[in-house]
Amino acid sequence: MATGTGTTRKISGSSARAHTRKPKSNSPSRISGIFKKLLLVFFVGFLAWAYQAIKPPLPKICGSKDGPPVTAPRIQLKDRRYLAYKEFGVPKDNAKHKIVFVHALDTCRHDVSAITSGLSPELADQLGLGSKFYVAGFSLGGQIVWTCLKYIPHRLAGAALIAPPVNYWWKGIPSNLSAEAYKKQLLQDQWALRVAHYTPWLIYWWNTQKLFPCMSIIARSPKVLSQQDVELLPKIHSLKQETACPAEDAVTFVETVRQQGDYESIHRDLAFAFGKWEFDPTELRNPFAEGSGSVHLWQGDEDILVPATLQREIARQLPWINYHEVRGAGHKFLYADGIADSIIQALVS
């Protein structure tokens, strides 16, 4: 349509919409929304993977549907766990001295053979030990002896701790001594000990992942063996083969120890040994102040796993403990000729 001053052009509605419509584009806000969703999916997936990685498998309890067979006498504890045991020596009714021996980490009841044929390890009330009995613990088993001295001193006739690990976080030990001994451990063990103490729920993953070395004792590394330990290995192997149960001939001794799963058999013990304790052994009082028994602490001065410096400090703070340091001995000195007899004679004399 024309006017006197200019020209006016009609434009259809569809043409007008075409000229005024904004072109489609991938706006930053839309991209950000998609990224957030992808990130959420990835995070959820990672959490699911991490949960499966750190969650230990269910234990294969002996006698259960999918577990190994029961090959030893055992008792059931109040928390419904089972405790297998093995008796040595004369029948318990005729035994003059009744001794419960607690074996070390990554070992089993057969290792009690190291102590001598004079031992008769039975388990308190259910095994008719009477009102008092002796207790001896080797390596990590020695930490069980500390708990006996704390919670059931009235049931003990005497106690022997043989190269028991020292928790580097016990407050009674001077921090400079703990730090010095801790730094002498293998680097892989320093990290594994931190995990056991600060994040015990990660202990299964830490010792089964393949990114870096697990704890040396779990890997059975020779790096933590002293010269004497290496020399004793053939004897230790022979003793284990001699005392293995005939029903376990089809399974090696090593497999027997871990047959219920690594977490159930060894990881939980590490979490106990180096976790947070309810008490400090350096604060214990003499349970035999009246002279009715005695406590003995045995330690090798060349032990790589358990620093002798820390045991000396414990013995200094607890003067009622009879401290025996064996020269030239490593962690496995219990198996050396004559040592087991000396430990038992000192305990029951």
TL;DR?
This protein has helices spanning 13-20, 28-54, 140-151, 175-183, 187-198, 203-206, 227-243, 253-257, 262-274, 308-317, 339-348, and strands at residues 74-76, 82-84, 99-102, 133-138, 156-162, 295-300, 321-326. The chain has 349 residues and is α/β, with parallel strands linked by helices.
What does this structure look like?
By secondary structure, the protein is an alpha/beta fold. The chain contains 11 helices and 7 strands. The chain has one domain (63-348): Rossmann fold, CATH 3.40.50.1820. It has helices at 13-20, 28-54, 140-151, 175-183, 187-198, 203-206, 227-243, 253-257, 262-274, 308-317, 339-348; strands at 74-76, 82-84, 99-102, 133-138, 156-162, 295-300, 321-326. It is globular.
N- and C-termini, Cα separation: 128 Å
Low-confidence stretches: 1-5, 116-127, 247-251
CATH superfamily: Alpha/Beta hydrolase fold, catalytic domain
CATH class placement? Alpha Beta
The CATH architecture category equals 3-Layer(aba) Sandwich
Taken together, the total number of domains comes to 1
Number of helices: 11
Biggest sheet character: 5 strands, parallel
SSE class: alpha/beta
Order of helices and strands: HHEEEEHEHHHHHHEHEH
Strand proportion, as a percent range, falls in 5-15%
